[in-house]
């Protein structure tokens, strides 16, 4: 298996035209069904978000509201265990916050069932690139197995797959997909390099990201 640094080198060498060709061959048009923004009967919606993306969403002017870190992001649930007062333990990275139904906190739906994102202009890269991912170790894959692939591009379950997509839209999506692959690998390397076992108290959650160990409110653990 290649090192993360080698995978990062491969990600930086990805050709946008090749990614766009793959996306165009698979085809995609968002139908605004909302499936990628909602949880299901078993799991809450889980989408990885970078620390700087959390800050951008906190400060976004694209929606009304006064958001703090915990309104935008929650600890990635993987690795946490149930304690007397809820989840506890150490985990890596952040997920977009969810509402009481397990849907993304920014997801909205009109009376006809058409979905929309309240923070659409500032949505994270993982949302901008769904339902696609790049087949490189160290990059995030959406929930579920790939249902189609072309070259380095994987397509995950979505009712919009197989629809016509313009070359301009395919290239825009390809640029975002490459940026996401690079960012995910840079984040993974930084998390690895910054990681130190945390000295946490009972019932406490510690999140390790590229900036170090943090509390659930996004503040550094050492403060």
TrEMBL record:
Signal peptide (residue range): none
Basic and acidic residues biased stretches: 193-217
Xref: InterPro entries: Puta_zinc/iron-chelating_dom
Annotated spans, Disordered: 193-223
Protein name: YkgJ family cysteine cluster protein
Native source organism of the sequence: Natrinema salsiterrestre
